[in-house]
Amino acid sequence: xxxxxxxxxxxxxxxxxxxxxxxxxxxxxxxxxxxxxxxxxxxxxxxxxxxxxxxxxxxxxxxxxxxxxxxxxxxxxxxxxxxxxxxxxxxxxxxxxxxxxxxxxxxxxxxxxxxxxxxxxxxxxxxxxxxxxxxxxxxxxxxxxxxxxxxxxxxxxxxxxxxxxxxxxxxxxxxxxxx
Amino acid sequence: xxxxxxxxxxxxxxxxxxxxxxxxxxxxxxxxxxxxxxxxxxxxxxxxxxxxxxxxxxxxxxxxxxxxxxxxxxxxxxxxxxxxxxxxxxxxxxxxxxxxxxxxxxxxxxxxxxxxxxxxxxxxxxxxxxxxxxxxxxxxxxxxxxxxxxxxxxxxxxxxxxxxxxxxxxxx
Lengths: 179, 172
Known about the structure:
heterodimer, A: mainly alpha, 8 helices, B: mainly alpha, elongated
């Protein structure tokens, strides 16, 4: 019978490394997605993912399934990302990752690429809490309540964070269209 | 509903986070307000662009590296895991047995343990030496069929063992 993540986590707490491997395999993509989108540096994102899973391994004996494992993972990854960013120099957000754009067509692509770059730069310049809320909403599909649980605020506060973040992005997009 | 109230909750409306009633109210306002419709369209465009930002795939071997680090940092975990699994298996096996069978199993284990302790006390140094001699003979036999000549070490050991006294105290 397939175990739930919470049951696996309790098994990890008893020293079951196979259960830990199952958790890593099942959630590495989510952890990587959040870390990479936040940090834009593959090496740093990998460090964060590794740190997050090792912290979870260490904390497993004390784990109580009061919240879902996924929320717990996002909580650890978000905290590590924000900590890393706070230690970094301020101007790093201008560095954009060299990621292949899968969208086809030469003509409109330039404008759409410009928009994407502008939005991405604007996302990177957002305060950490707004940025992590945006990442958890758009790429991980979390509800406001789940985002709140992950970053330690209420669902209402998440609505505020997302509202301010999107307002900045809309302004940036509007000014780009005027240029 | 006024525009400022609607705009405050437009993000939650687009994300499907509002109750059915709140959502219906905002929907009704939007039907008759072109300004709020423009805001909603702008919001949806931003959401679309943010959602389309690509991401590189998970680095190959990431999980393996995590597991290697986990095993390096917690070398005792795997051993503990085996012990735990053994205990779990034993518990499950005992639980599967009926009460008298459980008692019989426990009795057998206790009797075997006691028997082992008593037998260990009865083994004298002479018995141990005899066992050594037998082992040495077997070893010698094996070597006899080998490519090398009969090993002098085993032969010497056999000779020494057979000449010495069977009781340790008598050697002196």
